[in-house]
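Hi V.,

You were right to ask for the full record rather than a summary. Here it is.
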Amino acid sequence: MLTPSTIPSESVPAGPPPSPLPGTEPPHDCPLCPRLVALRESLRVEYPGWWNAPVPALGDPDAWLGIIGLAPGKHGANRTGRPFTGDYAGDLLFATLAKFGLASGVYEARPDDSLRLEGAIILNSVKCLPPENKPSPEEIRTCRPFVQNQVAVLPKARVFIALGQIAHQSAVKVLGGRLPKARFAHLAEHRMPDGRVLIDSYHCSRYNQNTGRLTAEMFEAVFARALELRGG
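Predicted structure:
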């Protein structure tokens, strides 16, 4: 049976910048989740110029802050190959990172723009686009070892932000915490057994922003708290 540690490596076509965590990513044609593979293959036919593959991490390998998202968006990361790049959620996320000194350059919704993260890194709970942006529990479990391997090579990351409940659940498990003791809520803090801290945020999706569930001020409060924890 294939697992994340036994999938053979392979060449990857030109696309987004190389992963800041080489050796931890799934291959371009990862076969582990049949439903996600089927969607990927259909999109490669329909949109051959898109990335249509597992999306690598983005950011600083020496990051003190880890941001854990859900999964690539169809017209965002699945198209561009870079997390949160090209969709509505990325506009707020990258603007917030820049405001708090965690990004430099200019975000232009392209994988070849001048945006660079500084002190922060973005990982996704699920590396491939799921149908209707809803990964199954089995797909989340199958992909979790990739996230776990990436967190393991980030020794300086002592503060994490989970974007949404699915990311929260994966983050708690990856960081050694316990569910349901660590309950998801916006701005909730969870101290993990080794002292790392997880902060929850509502996901910065278009839906959450348009309905007022998440405002820019609410989102900024999460990152302000992360900076406080770093200083403390």
